[in-house]
Amino acid sequence: MITEALRLQFLLRKDTTFLNFGSFGACPKPIFDRYQQYQLELEQEPVQFIVKTGMQYLKDSRIALGKYLNCHEDDLVFMVNPSHAVNLIAKSFALAPGDEILTTDLEYGACDRTIQYYCDKAGAKYIRQKVSLPIISKQAFMEEFFKGVTEKTKMIFISHITSSTGLRFPVEEICAKAKQMGIISFVDGAHAPGQVPLNLSTLDADIYTGACHKWMMAPKGCTFLYVRRELQNQFDPLVISWGYNSTTPSHSRFLDYHQTQGTRDFSAFCTVPTVIDFMEKNHWPEVAKECRKIVHENALPFCKLLKAEPLAPIHDDFIVQLFSIPIKTASPVVLKDCLFEKYKIEIPVMPHADKVYLRYSIQAFNTQSDLDKLTDALKDIINTTSLIEV
């Protein structure tokens, strides 16, 4: 289902091989055009947009997103990014000295630091359970991860798809087991919506945040936070504004507290119906399937080239549209800059703890030739420099 016409919808520079969709996404032209229309409408009549019409657009977006995620629209609020959502939850989550939050040692740095900060402030413990790499199976992962649970564990915080390693974790099984144990589950799904099917009703996470501006291709600054209804009143807004003790309260304190926080351009939030329509018209499950095929077919050749072992079995359980390869380099920043400046390849080279990963992302605009260019560049760097050890 990936056609040249679809590839041409993306606005990316033609002189760059873009293999880093995972970092910030990229917005196709029809979605970006609608985004700019909202911005123009905002500037043409700011009062009506911010006070009236924009509020209806936000409602329409929540309704569309709720249907897409299979949850009630009133259990969703828009955030500018997952870091804001994680901060909101971490700041208000009730912790006492000695309480514990369990996570893995492969979480995204900004969110990882946020949870650590509020645990430190409360005198609680943030337990980073080690994930043995390569992952062998879901069962092995679950057994290792849940060894970190104690009677003091109050929350499990875990990525749906990790950033640096690109691994898909078995969050369905994790949330189910957490519920059996009476532990709150909080899933960082920044990379999941649009990359994998996401049904919040069957996933049954207590709290979930996902970026619409990554794999759903919305404009930058569009993320959602879902909180199970019975937990919503536990969480204060990051910014106290007109929704607190509102003289005209809506039917939902959750929306009052978190949806409207001062003057800001929320045009990106309004594009969600256009985003979903774009994906439906282009048969996105099939597009994602073709992208995964390219990711999977190239995984082992890249591992062989870099003399690395894949981080997990190469199938949909663990590897979707991101693939990270352990790479030996003493200068990850220099290597990344070299790939971009000399070879015009945009791709991250990411340190995580004592490891470094080269991560490629495949989206609808990518072809096999993009990964062939990466192969040629890596071979040249290996043969002509000391940036990569093999």
Task: Write up what this structure looks like.
With 390 residues, the chain is of the alpha/beta class. It folds into 2 domains: 4-30 and 283-384, Aspartate Aminotransferase, domain 1 (Alpha-Beta Complex); 45-279, Aspartate Aminotransferase, domain 2 (3-Layer(aba) Sandwich), CATH 3.40.640. Helices cover 42% and strands 15% of the residues. The strands form 3 sheets. The protein has a 7-stranded mixed β-sheet with strand order 2-8-7-6-5-3-4, sandwiched between helices. Strands 9-12-11 form a 3-stranded antiparallel β-sheet. Strands 1-10 form a two-stranded parallel sheet. α3 runs antiparallel to α4 and α5 (82-92) packs parallel to α6. 43% of the residues are buried.
Briefly, what is this?
The chain has 390 residues and is of the alpha/beta class. It contains 15 helices and twelve strands.
β-strand number: 12
What characteristic shape results from the CA principal axes? globular
Taken in chain order, the helices and strands follow as HEHHHEHEHEHEHEHEEHHHHEHEEEH
Instruction: From the 3D structure, determine the CATH topology of the largest domain.
Output: Aspartate Aminotransferase, domain 2
What structural class results from the helix and strand content?
Answer: alpha/beta
Approximately what portion of the residues adopt beta-strand conformation? 5-15%
Q: Tell me the quaternary state.
A: single chain
Kindly state the percentage of residues in helix: 40-55%
Give the radius of gyration: 21 Å
Number of domains: 2
Reading off the top of the CATH hierarchy, the class of the largest domain is best stated as Alpha Beta
Task: Please tell me the CATH architecture of the largest domain by its name.
Answer: 3-Layer(aba) Sandwich
The main β sheet shows up as: 7 strands, mixed
CATH superfamily of the largest domain: Type I PLP-dependent aspartate aminotransferase-like (Major domain)
Strand order of the largest sheet: 2-8-7-6-5-3-4
Mean pLDDT: 97
Low-confidence segments, given as residue ranges, are: none
The N- and C-terminal alpha carbons lie at a distance of 38 Å
